[in-house]
Amino acid sequence: MTTPCLRVENLNVMYDVGKRKLHAAKDVSFEIAPGETLGLVGESGSGKSTAGLALLRLIEPSSGKIMLGDTNVATAGRRELQLLRKRMQMVFQDPYSSLNPSMTIEQLLTEPLIVHADMAASDRRAAVGKMLESVGLHAGYAARYPHEFSGGQRQRIAIARSMMLHPDLVVLDEPVSALDVSTQSQILKLLKNVQAASGTAFLLVAHDLAVVRLMSPRVAVMYLGEIVETGPSARVYDEPAHPYTAALISAVPFPDPVRQRSANRIILGGDLPSPLNPPSGCRFRTRCPFAMDICARAAPPTVQVEGGGVAACHLHTEGPKLGGRSLNAFMRERNIGAMEVTT
Amino acid sequence: MDPLLSLKDLTVQFPSTHGLLTVVDKVSFDVGRNEVVCVVGESGSGKSVTMQAAVGLVQTKGGRVTGGSVRFDGQELVGMKNRHLNRIRGNDIGFIFQEPMSSLNPAYTVGEQIAEVVRRHRGVSRAEAWKRAVEMLERVHIATAAARAHDYPHQFSGGMRQRVMIAMAIACDPKLLIADEPSTALDVTIQARILQLIKELQTASGMSVLFITHDLGVVAEIADRVVVMYGAQVVEEAGVDALFATPRHPYTTGLLRAMPQVALERGEDPVAIPGTVAQAHAWPAGCRFNPRCEFREDGPCTTGQVQLVRDDHGLVRCIRADALRTRLTQAVAA
Question: Between residues 293 and 322 of chain A, which touch chain B (CB distance below 8 Å)?
Fold first, then answer.
């Protein structure tokens, strides 16, 4: 395997809440190859955005390694961090608040060049024009202000800005969730094109499972601060090996009423437990329809899954001993359909 | 039997820097008894304002109903005095909104807030109202409801707050429940339970539901009948199965094909609808969707007004609907 663009090892992020510690990301590890997109999915409170922000040190990690190429971002000093910043960029969810309203598009796009690149003003202007066209905006828009654009166009500008320095990695934090469905896919397509042209790696943080599958060949699923399953998207979505992944996927309503009526769904009971006081053992056990005694006692082992990736769940080594097989087989065996557990 | 709610040519205008804007333009549809009707559309389609206008809630926001009628259970709501409307709202019509936190008063316990609704509309004693509040919390599956009734909204999670809102909305056994994007701010696993709960309560009580959403997945899950809005107008109306199997308006097929889930199923990239959503200060001439429509014919689609026409399928506002019939069905076929 080629050297990964990004390798994250046991990343931990803690917040101080009063006198207590909130473990927002716990031992998060993953890799992204150059030019690859890794999807990071999870619900609110899963720690997916925290992990994304921590990669860029927009939130300080408490421990762990963040290797961008062979530099450890986690331990970089101020000057080194500034140099690293041009290699990693971010696109935020809300294109209304992430662009300075008092700057023109040209100023917004040249700012990264002024800070990080030694370029003549005329070269900068040419670079801006070229970038605007590559994100599907007329170069003549450079003199306008953000308020003159729609949400989708603003997101194009935000993407253009993130790409100005040809970064190795861009963290996309919910890049389309503020957009209408009809314009969402324009942005998704643009992201794919931009990536194909630049070879930039993406970490796509999103709650929309379909968007993530569409964009990412590989996906990691987070729950309450931990990655519970990773693997090739096709395998994870079609043959999930962790009960949370299975529940998450089955909860998304599919736009076909006939299929909805016959769908076999896992409906989770309870709510996300407080991250200040996470359950012992497996963090998902309080909502898991298949929880066993051992789940409260011991942290689940990480098991290799058939078809690629890993899952952290006791079901693979205890009880039904799935041994890396997907949950679908198990659910069919036990004739488990829609169910609800109350906690 | 008469429909429970009947909108006829409802028109709403708002003042703006661009002059008076028509944000709901002659919208008509019915909600039958024991029926779940979904109004689906993107931002700016007028779906939420339609609902607010129907129950006399746009005036406070500066809007005005400038035409049409809204009949609810035999009474005309347009022009009705607030005093009378207040008797209907919260009693015969219950509401749930997108943001449960901003609809609940943080200074009162959830039990007090539900009991307040019951006392106002039913005139029962405090003790009886409290009993009813606890019973309602049980009905929306809040565990240990009698104890939780003493808790404040901030002590509940987002999904539970939405269930509290539902408990409040149904406390007076409404004939109609209006739900405006009730699950949009929630996570999918929580959304699944809220939808299941609304369906369960609807089936048990026989109330009607008017459900406003932008998510066609949610529509497929909960609707009996669907009203699609674009540019302040109804562009299509049909039974839920027909709408998804044989959509008649290019905007409906466009919305479906833009959905990542549908694209994945078909093994293709999602097809974006080009351009941006039409704006009230600049409605295009002719069909309001025409600048974004791949089937547009200059002339017929770009001039005059396109009427909503009824056929065996339902209602559709497209001059080329008959000609496009097969193509649109094929466009969304699996």
Answer: none
